[in-house]
UniProtKB/TrEMBL annotation, chains A, B, C, D:
InterPro entries: Beta-lactam/transpept-like, Glutaminase. Its EC number is 3.5.1.2. Keywords: Acetylation, Hydrolase. SUPFAM superfamilies: beta-lactamase/transpeptidase-like. The gene is glsA. This is Glutaminase. GO terms for biological process: glutamate biosynthetic process; L-glutamine catabolic process. Substrate binds at S63, N113, E157, N164, Y188, Y240, V258. It comes from Algoriphagus machipongonensis.
């Protein structure tokens, strides 16, 4: 398989389709990025890296970082984690607080905001310097120093972070939150404000295509079973209110972020990261989703 | 009408009924009060004071203070206030956050927690030293220095204040909150932690029985129309999820608190405060509710 | 008190204000009534009748009939009724089904649709020919034959009755519905489709102003305590999502219908019915509400 | 691959684990089946059939039939179908009506009850004799006459069908229901009451393992794209509130029913049906789920 040719074809075809969306506008630092940027990076199971377009340009990974923090925490808590957060898809908006009220403080899954806050809280229970350690962990997964926290983005998000703060206090009222809220939120907004290129992001997801073993870190990051769990969660819950649609169109476990990035894996084949800032109305990158759809078509790959 | 004899009869009969409830247990300082305490104070329209039992013993007025803060704020904002908080009863629990999500950050009424937080926020916009000024205002209404903030209660409530904090941040996410949340919450928990005796509480409610004019302050505290509005809100929303039942059994506008107090008014006749710590399952004092029911029976009073 | 002069003044002033609303448009038979019609009838405690405008013209009483059916049923079941339907105001829309799901099939009060269906179901358990008997009962209360079921209206509502039918089946799934659904719905839509004039409607409400005794029927229709319960329910739940507002502005227990009618009582003084088809956005007649507000102002009456 | 040996091993191991659950008790006809029954049938892509245990014994397929009816309807309406029903997982119970209220009558997916009713309604719009035609269609897919509607089960479910009837009327109130409700419900309860053996069920699912082509019917039943859509829906929404868990443990698109059956496919490999009546608390057969988990383990198969 010539992956380089494949992603170049996909890149070209998507560019020709001239798809339009809307850059996320709730943070000035993200609202002002050049909307025409578009990059793809693919890392095969042996660690070979392929890229096209803006694949080396760092962008704000946002919610994609929830996969990295979940991975760190999963190693420590293992299945006990699932007493604090469920593993099922949610029919409510990603930032809904009503669901938490009806389900007594147990978030539906680790990728909706409430669930990701529980994960970051668990992270703060185990790591002394969580922000540095998340960065170090991702650098290790990517095999190089590549992560930078954009403090302007972080600060902007903290300035508009009332809803996440409300979720954190609400979780605490159900005793599902253990650390000082300010500290956890700073860690949360920091990891969401991390910037990486498509290349490094794809490398950092490589272990999920490889039963938990990272070539770049040269170690078993998760057990095979844990790795499957993370992939299952991405497949059923990784795309906000478009998980079912993505499973059908693309069929790969993946996670999107409002910065316009999507990271996904084809187990035992490759990991891939695609980035383009314009989003559809469900909050997922229009070009990234289309690129992944074309790519699986060309590979004649289908889960189904 | 011999009010002294009336409340003594009521007091006696309620004591003989030996009603049982459960002292609020979420704050140590309130959980440990002597549950057998019981007092009634009535202030007629001319300012005569009548009392029986523990009517001079200070207790934690809790949510009853929401009537005082609403009054302070109402004077400044008048009907503009109702763009930020509605005037209708709620079918949800007093501390529900789901209702706020469905109704886009506008609380149903000023007595559920979310609504009271909006009122306290408005208070902080107009008053430089809100805690001192709430105390001074209540003292003025009662015609004497009588209010004390119990800092142990306040601190306990702040330590368990996650749910109210969540409400505040959620309100802020809808831009229905203007002041620093910590500051507003401190004011909120302070006024809820105020202690007053039945006598002083009844005096402080006297203006609501008198079309807004306070004999003790010797001034028009609210316009007649505003005073009616506060009374209408107390009648329809003053007793958590027992407003309809209280309207039927007692038929007086009033407000209860989890400290076991109830303050109510019979317009153009008297104001009254009753206190006994044991609560029914809806969170209202069993003896206070029963006392008011007997009292209106004996007066052959009925709204209906 | 010259009630005739009073209602004429009110009538005149309201007419001059030229208030506008919107006639209910979901049934052709109601949508096409002349929107300018406006009548007031007042019946004092002695049975004297006063009227102005279109006070003798029959109109569709709609939800006002829920007071009559509640009265019939209350007599049979007494307080056992409140195991099937609650007595508290609802923060949800009058036709909400979600509330029923969260509260396990117990409607919030007898005036929201779900609650009224439970009442009509109870009615069908006790009366062999419920439609005839509701008519006969109202005729008795009014002291003359006056009620007519408009079958066109009834049939129209049955044709668009899917939501009420859904509520009935949902109640049945919680075992809070005992009779054949079709039969109960026919009775329900029949009593909603009854037509009466303001005069007869005011007469039929007279017993609620008189501690349960009807002058026209010459008997105790409800006990004093039951009569108070009905009035308390009307005050807290009688005006859809405008109960708090109506309590403040008017302060009388009452019930409105989408036909543009409002019936209310001033206990121990009079009952009153006002009708004008144009509704405000909450579904209550603009002219009727305004007329009652002016009337209580002129009487210097206030609950508060 | 020796599929016969594989399923025999799985059968043996599951039997030894002695798993316990609870037979569905809401219908007498299902509540009284022998709980120890357990069968597995596997049909490979070439049409070879393998079976073990009670694989030839007919059982009530219940919700599994929703896959068959969706398939029939999908062919006619194609993507227009998705204007009436969404394709995303739901966080609410499978029979929730509140979700329908909040989302204006559009069910979350075709497998929750509300969605399946819309599908059956669409079926009734296109087929003159829907029950016969569903039976005929399933027989065609299975390559033999095998389907029988158990009228006792159907009648029992109709007798307790209030909640589904409520859903149907509620859908109609949103104009998302076109045919007479009684007729549609009879079709719905009839297809849920169909009985098939594991062998025939696995054969009837074979086309979903084969890009839409049925060997037994010898025709393209769905396009490849449609077939993927059905599989994607089964993977994300096929197991009530256990879809995420099933995706992780088993990783096959599938559909369960409260009769204790599960039908699933491994695309391009085989279809499989497992049946055992005892259910876990989420409503899925404990032995069937465990069997599928063991089977994919033994095959070293994983989506992830």
């Amino acid at each position: 398989m010539d992956y380089q040719q494949l992603i170049e074809e996909v890149y070209q075809e998507v560019q020709e389709e001239n798809l339009k969306g809307k850059v996320a506008d709730y943070i000035p630092e993200i609202a002002t990025v050049d909307p025409n940027q578009f990059g793809i990076a693919l890392v095969d199971i042996k660690g070979n890296v392929f890229g096209v377009g803006d694949h080396q340009k760092p962008f704000s990974i946002q919610s994609i970082s929830k996969v990295h923090t979940l991975t760190m925490v999963f190693n420590f808590f293992n299945s006990k984690l699932w007493t604090r957060v469920n593993v099922e898809p949610s029919g409510d908006p990603f930032n809904s607080i009503a669901q938490l009220e009806y389900e007594k403080g147990i978030p539906r899954n680790p990728f909706i905001n409430a669930g990701a806050l529980v994960i970051t809280d668990a992270l703060c229970s185990k790591f002394e310097k969580p922000i540095e350690q998340v960065s170090a962990f991702i650098n290790e997964l990517a095999g190089e120093t590549c992560v930078m926290v954009n403090n302007d983005v972080k600060n902007s998000e903290m300035d508009h972070g009332e809803r996440n703060t409300a979720l954190a206090y609400f979780l605490k009222s159900f005793k599902n939150f253990n650390n000082p809220i300010d500290q956890v939120l700073e860690v949360y907004f920091s990891h969401c404000a991390m910037e990486m290129s498509c290349v490094d992001l794809a490398k950092s997801f490589s272990f999920l295509a490889n039963d938990g073993y990272s070539i770049f870190a040269d170690r078993q990051v998760l057990t095979e079973s844990q790795s499957r769990r993370v992939n299952a969660l991405m497949l059923t819950c990784g795309f906000y209110d478009e998980a079912g649609e993505f499973a059908y169109k693309v069929g790969l476990p993946g996670k999107s972020g409002v910065g316009g990035g999507v990271a996904a894996v084809m187990p035992h084949k490759f990991s891939i990261a695609v980035w383009s800032p314009e989003l559809n109305e469900k909050g997922n990158s229009v070009k990234a989703i289309r690129a992944l759809e074309l790519l699986t078509d060309k590979l004649s790959f289908s889960l189904f």
